[in-house]
Amino acid sequence: MPVEVKAGGDKRASSFKGYVNSKKPKFAIRFSERNLKKDGAFVNIPLYLAPRFAKCF
User: What is the pTM of this model?
Assistant: First the structure.
């Protein structure tokens, strides 16, 4: 499962999106300052929830 961490507000992730588009994983996790959201294979998880992420798996 590919994971990306974005500390800033810039949501551009061309290399991450390219990887996801070529490898077609079931999910691609992005930790960022943005709200919880699922958009296709991409799942955005707010940074404040990162410590709880490991407990989910």
Answer: 0.79
